[in-house]
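chain below, 182 aa
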Amino acid sequence: MTSSQKHQAARALGAYWEEAFARLAIEAGFSLTLHQSGRRGAARLLVPAEGGYRGMPLPDVTIWTSPVSHHEIKHKNPTDGGNYGLEVYRFNALTRLYKETGERVMYTIHDWTRLGRDNRQCEIEDWVTASVRYLATCIKKTKDGYSYVDGQWEIVPIHLWPKDVFRPLTGFWRHVRSGGAS
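prediction:
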């Protein structure tokens, strides 16, 4: 399989889990937008910048039902050390979105450990989440790893967090529905 085919397969798998998250959210009574589904490139928020504007990549899903929350969706399992990772450039974009909007910006993971990477069964108990505001305070370490950037595989810095700083998605949704902070 070529690098391009691997990337296309990874994007298709990501799109599947973004849509699975959307189905769970709709079943839970939330209204939402899938930002990346069906797109060739990343959806962007345009923000004022010197001499015009700059584009910030949007997370995969925005739940509009108050209180608004933006979710970067990943389908992964923890590393051997029990950590979840995210590329620093992606994390920085999520942090900028939080600073720009003041709204909840979440890193939300479908953990495939229980059922396997290629299993398409979507169970709410396999989903965890954490706000980028909180994650910024508890980065365990940063290491280099591979990521597909601008059409090619590159080695980039990746932040790692212990999996126990993430909470079950159902608990987060209950908390926000009751008026709690992120």
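The two ends are 41 Å apart (CA to CA). The mean pLDDT is 90.
thats it, cya
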